Amino acid sequence: MALAAACGGNGGTAATDPATEGDGTEGEATVRVGQVVPSLGFVSLDVARADGMFAKRGIDLEWSLLSGGDPATLAALDGGNIDIAAIGSQTPVTAISKGEEYQIIYSLMSQMSIDLTMSNAHLKEVGISADDPVEEKLQALKGATIGVSALGGAQDRIARWLADRAGLDPEADLEIVLVGPPPALRAGLENGNIDGFVLTAPTGQLVEEAGAGTVLVELGSEIDELSSYDHLILVIRKDYGEQNREVVVRTLQALIEADRRVAEDAGGTAELLHANDYEEVPLPLLTASVKSLQGGVGHSGRLNVENIAFLLEFTAATGYEFDRDLDAAEGEGDWWTNEFIDLAIEGA
Q1: pLDDT in tens, 101-147
Q2: Cβ count near 348 (within 10 Å)
Q3: Residue 322: Cβ-neighbour burial (10 angstroms; 0-12, 13-18, 19+)
Q4: Which class does domain 29-111+228-346 fall in?
Q5: Interior CA angle at 117 toward 223 and 45, to 5°?
Q6: Which residue ranges does the chain devote to CATH 3.40.190.10?
Q7: pLDDT value of residue 24
Q8: Do residues 348 and 122 make contact, with C-beta atoms less than 8 angstroms apart?
Q9: If you average pLDDT over every residue of the chain, what do you get?
Q10: Class of 114-224 per CATH?
Q11: How confident is the model at residue 348 (pLDDT cuts 50, 70, 90)?
């Protein structure tokens, strides 16, 4: 997968100027989307880009892959360098608690899409296999060196949350080390420099195919509370949504079309992605990876009070600090909304 600005099917490159489309009226419009990491968790966005779903709705998509994690992506949104952030959900709600005028408008992945992958050498040493109960499998974190893309980021916090859930000391019983983006984490595990990582498919599955590691725990399907969790979301500035309502609606129409395709056709989705951003991933493996994520799509990106409440709870449990308490029910229509989704479905 390309690790630079790209536009997968709609033309264009990463934008650096403020949005030129400000009145939100019908017609050709440029929308700049910044994505936080290359990940199959953003599969609906990948499909919509690859199959021209934005272009057919008059959206000239300028898509960029940003470095620096969720904070840097939010900074790009705040600075007007992008219009929509495709991002993990925890950093935005933390920023909202600090008074930032952001709004969550779409759930790209409504289950935890991250897997815990461990090296076979480490699993042999600790005597744990993928067939063990999940609570036993999490004991593999004890004494392990876990690689992450950013210290203090989502991967770091989730690994420590898993350790805590297993009754381990998140600070003393595992070591978290900075490695880099997914390709570097894969190389680090295959070369024996780390014992594991927490990443979305297909990175773990590629390691498994190479014989170096095992996808030990699929968090979204094996840990009940993470099966209904808005893991990856779209965020806008409130003023952008107010000024570009029709443009946002058309953008979400493309994503809803892609979302439904992914939910209904894993094989066709995999073939499309294999011809575009995922050429290096064997097609059968890519198809299996898409199937593992289908539970998190097919809901037209819709948000709900229960999932938002759990997002707030999980964010606090993984060590993020809120400047003020947020209430999921009171936040509807303010810092999170289905308004654009409803309009997108009505106008489809």
Answers
A1: 999 999 999 999 999 999 999 999 999 999 999 999 999 999 999 99
A2: 12
A3: middle
A4: alpha beta
A5: 75
A6: 29-111+228-346, 114-224
A7: 43
A8: no
A9: 91
A10: alpha beta
A11: low
